[in-house]
Amino acid sequence: MKSIHIKNIDFAYKKGNSVFQDFNLHLSQQESEGKIIALMGASGSGKSTLLKLLLGIEQPVSGSIEMLPVNPVFSYVPQEAVLFEHLSTKDNARYFQFAGGFKKRFNKGLYTELIESLGLEDVINSKKTVLELSGGQKQLLSLLRALSIEPDFLLLDEPCNGLDAEVKRAFLNKLREITQRYGLFVLYITHHKLEAQLIADDVLYLVQDKKTGTVHNSALASVQIFIDKPPVMHAAQVFRFPDIKLLPMSINESGKIIIAKNENDIAQYWLVDDKDISIDRNDGFPFKVISKSPMYVVIRHEASATEWMLPNSLLKANEAGENIFIKINNKSAVYSKYGILLN
Fold first, then answer.
1. Are residues 219 and 248 in the same domain?
2. Does an H or E element contain 91, and which?
3. Are strands 296-301 and 2-14 parallel, antiparallel or unpaired?
4. Alpha helices in 96-164 (DSSP H)
5. How confident is the model at residue 94 (pLDDT cuts 50, 70, 90)?
6. Residues 279 and 308 in one domain
């Protein structure tokens, strides 16, 4: 078994400005099974910092990080491929065959097999310099180099940034295939839910405190759970984009549920699906149509500053500036005012 166990770590780049505080995490993988965990969270929530802590580039102020195997070998593929311009394409690919402490880890048989698996035969054998390679070829070359030493853990930091849709699809398909074939344990940072849906087994979502910006905890679940019922509110906004329907709710003196007018009134948030709402012109929660595009209508509840994007099919007869009322017949999920899934 491979595992990462983070116990009560604190970390800050500057004193008094914590990134992680009393943070705990346990990840594991059966030895023979390939596993990809998509690491997600709001911008600045510490995703890249977490990788740096695992790599030993940064050290926690307190707490501990324990791993199996002890002193594991990591391979890291950043957002932009790091290749050496003074080396040939082939020498870039087999760099670890000649690199100090990694010489013993270099697996020539695996390296040769991966060249074929990744479709890099022509690239390796061509006389092109690394500067002449496409973005997709550079990332595949980086992946080949990273895997040639049979790492215990593979860390990928948004490796598809800047790649066009077709190249990205091919890269992700190949990564998934290789993960399963070689039993890899992969942590994959991404902001894009589609990437997570395409390749990940689980999603690890870093939960950031809105006021302090500090990460105290995380949510870990299967991709399907994140799509159906994201465990934290911000994840709901990511996985339901663009048509998120989150209503801030409170209960008035008579016990009736109403949309909260300010943050202090909010008892919970409701996540609502299209099938759970009906449109009326004089009864329900008041919204105003803000704008229309060929696919979506944007509406706003002024009192709570809540905006929704609805499919055009639901509001095709309404124009910008019109007032409408929305009735809620059900809710998909309920979140606490702190953004944690309640049901």
1. no
2. helix 89-93
3. unpaired
4. 108-117, 121-125, 135-147
5. very high
6. yes
